[in-house]
Amino acid sequence: MADFTQTTPGWLEADELSAARAQLPVLYVNAVPVRVDEGGEVTHVGLLLGIDSDGTVTRTLVSGRVQYHERVRDALLRHLEKDLGPVALPRIPASLQPFTVAEYFPTPGITPYHDPRQHAVALAYVVPVAGDCRPRQDALDLVWFSPQEAVSELVQQDMPGGQGVLLKQALAHAGCMI
Fold it and tell me: Which superkingdom (predicted)?
């Protein structure tokens, strides 16, 4: 048995991740960042602006894998900070009951959610953020939309893999579906 020190616990090498994705569902978290007024009503929804590998403009939600031995709460905070910056000031719900569980399949049409890389199961949350959001990592920008704008055909057409459906579910859960 080889002796080695794991310096980044919970991370898989690229080939290990590919092998795991080919054989197992992978656990993710999805977060819909929102701004709320004093009464707790959603006033704006934040969508990350990015460019796909084929040059297509996309709008996405905050999302990412849950690492081995990582609590869901910690994964949610890590991905919110990674995508929105360290001073976004997210307010994670006291109860981590997701508003839905989204199953992404590599085969289109099984569910509204599609990820060509893998079968993934995502716990989805609406997360109010109060601070200054500055997108990081692969995102070009974070654009705030009213709930009405967010469900418009113009915005929805830029949301790949069923994330537009997930956004509509989030807004319905928050009581502001138009």
Answer: Bacteria
Whole-number Å distance between alpha carbons of 127 and 92: 6
pTM tops 0.90, yes or no = no
* pLDDT tens column, 38-95: 999 999 999 999 998 888 999 999 999 999 999 999 999 999 999 999 999 999 988 9
124-143 burial, b at 16+ Cβ within 10 Å, e below that, comes to: bbbbbbeeebebeeebeebb
Tell me the C-alpha distance between 108 and 156, whole Å.
18
**In this structure, is residue 87 part of a structural domain?**
yes
Cα–Cα dist 50/72, whole Å: 25
**CATH code for the domain in which residue 53 is found:** 3.90.79.10
Instruction: Give the count of domains, the chain.
Output: 1
